[in-house]
Write a structure and sequence with these properties.
Length: 508
């Protein structure tokens, strides 16, 4: 039996476009809506959006006329103009908000345009996700009307010349609708706090005053917050403080590595709901209990394309080639990895977001996130994905009855050959050599390429066990605490240099 039933007025149901339709038709409708709105912009004029709209096959024409972009290329050619205050560049009007997103590997901040149209699309997707709770069974109805603790970035945005910049979570919270404010925690005052440690301290101090039913955020930071509350008030578990806590809405990283440690903090089972909300838009959400993956938001504010994540379309460093093969939603296959291209209602066009996904149920448009185009290891052809790493960590953690909430992997030369060096966070007593051997064995089972290369050029696997606090401290030193920041699963470039300095005590 569903936990509640909602009968919506027809006008609202129509606005939310709840009835199911062909994903291909939905996506073409979204593409046309985006093109019509932006056809008089500089971008729309250069790439002949009117011609695309008049075409018999607008999807194909769009791909033919508009090149693909990554952040650096679209910023250099277009988005820098919006930061200078110029209107009608890639989307009508001036851009007044930017989400600061450094991802997990770049050193410099990225300025991702945020428009009222994008925020509107995000909100409709969020309402649809809330309504999808009708599909969940055996969860407490009363939890839905309790407080929602949303642990995100500061709503005290940076004021620049002509615009504001900050975390998308901070921009979204700042624009919280009035009807939601009584439920929203930690409230406007604490949400403005930029100092992450101060914010956590203030949340812990206020925790006894709240009756929380939902918590929303990145697993690592939510877990840290709950641990602080339990320690401060000498509790056995978080349900001693919040007995009505029933839902955890998470996203950004795979929850599996955190789950074992997370559940130690609970007094009873809760329902986990996965979301895929990036700075560029609300991409997907879990809309039914025990689903294989998250349903793509195909009918609102994002047009998706899918680039097969293979050697034809990407270099060994994870850079996309010019003119890659790009598929539309009706052309994808289950079980294959794709890099996402987005065209959005904020002026991102055929934009490589950097994530890789896999369809687990094409008919329902359900996906799982498998990693990042840059976050994989293929030094000698082992093609080791974040998805492979997560599975190995999950299985081995369960076998050894330990908790590994964080980890990262580095590729290293070893004479004329190569090695993988794992750094794992584990506060339990564990034999590092045994843990490394078990992870290596599990990867050989789930990845044939890895198994082959372990017999040839990939000569060794090393593993160091660190305290979880060391991973958190590195993120603090890098200025990546709270909000949507998460530890990269593969370290390369500047982040790898800084990590090595940190381990030597040279990064302060």
């Amino acid at each position: 039996m569903a936990i509640f039933d909602i009968q919506l007025p027809k006008s609202i149901a129509k606005a939310l476009r709840l009835p199911q339709n062909s994903p291909r038709r939905q996506q073409l409708r979204v593409l046309k809506k985006l093109l019509k709105k932006s056809r008089f912009t500089q971008f729309g004029q250069k790439y002949r959006f009117d011609e695309v709209l008049m075409s018999k096959h607008p999807g194909r024409k769009f791909q033919e006329l508009v090149p693909t972009y990554n952040y650096n290329s679209i910023y250099k050619e277009w988005w820098h103009l919006t930061l200078e205050g110029k209107p009608d560049v890639c989307w009508p009007g001036k851009i007044k908000f930017y989400a600061l997103s450094s991802g997990t590997s770049e050193a410099a901040s990225k300025y991702i345009p945020i428009t009222s149209d994008l925020l509107k699309g995000n909100k409709i997707a969020m309402i649809k996700q809330l309504l999808s709770l009708r599909n969940y069974e055996d969860v407490p109805v009363k939890a839905i009307g309790k407080g929602w603790l949303m642990l995100g970035g500061s709503t005290d945005l940076q004021k620049e010349t002509g615009y504001y910049a900050g975390d998308l979570s901070g921009i979204t919270a700042k624009k919280t609708p009035f009807w939601f404010q009584p439920f929203y925690k930690p409230g406007k005052k604490i949400a403005r706090q930029r100092d992450w440690n101060r914010k956590l301290e203030e949340i812990v101090a206020k925790a006894p005053e709240w009756d929380i039913g939902f918590i929303v955020g990145v697993p690592a930071w939510i877990q840290m917050c709950m641990e602080m509350i339990i320690e401060k008030y000498k509790l056995d578990n978080i349900h001693d403080m919040w007995p009505n806590l029933a839902f955890f809405v998470h996203g950004g990283v795979s929850f599996e590595p955190y789950k074992k440690g997370f559940e130690k903090l609970l007094g009873k089972p809760i329902t986990y709901i996965e979301t895929y909300l990036a700075s560029e838009g609300f991409i997907a959400y879990q809309d039914r209990q025990h689903s294989k993956g998250m349903r793509l938001v195909t009918n609102e504010h994002i047009f998706f394309e899918f680039v097969p994540f293979d050697h034809k379309n990407f270099t060994a460093d994870g850079d996309m080639v010019d003119n890659p093969e790009a598929l539309m939603i009706h052309e994808v296959e289950e079980g294959k990895d794709y890099a996402l291209l987005l065209s959005t209602s904020a002026g991102a066009w055929r934009y490589l977001i950097g994530d890789t996904i896999r369809f687990v149920d094409k008919e329902r448009c359900e996906i799982v996130i498998t990693g990042r185009t840059k976050h994989f290891l293929s030094l000698v052809g082992e093609h080791l994905s974040v998805d492979n790493m997560n599975k190995a960590i999950q299985v081995v953690s369960e076998e050894m009855n330990i908790c590994v909430p964080e980890y990262t992997v580095v590729g290293e030369p070893e004479g004329n050959f190569f090695a993988h060096h794992w750094y794992v966070a584990c506060d339990d007593v564990v034999n590092a050599e045994l843990l490394g051997r078990k992870i290596d064995d599990k990867l050989k089972q789930i990845n044939d390429d890895y198994a082959v290369e372990r017999k040839s050029a990939l000569r060794n696997v090393y593993l160091d066990v660190l305290q979880e606090e060391q991973f958190m401290e590195f993120m603090r030193l890098k200025g990546k605490v709270g909000g949507q920041h998460k530890f990269p699963r593969v370290l390369k470039g500047k982040m790898l240099e800084d990590w090595k300095k940190f381990l030597k005590g040279e990064l302060v």
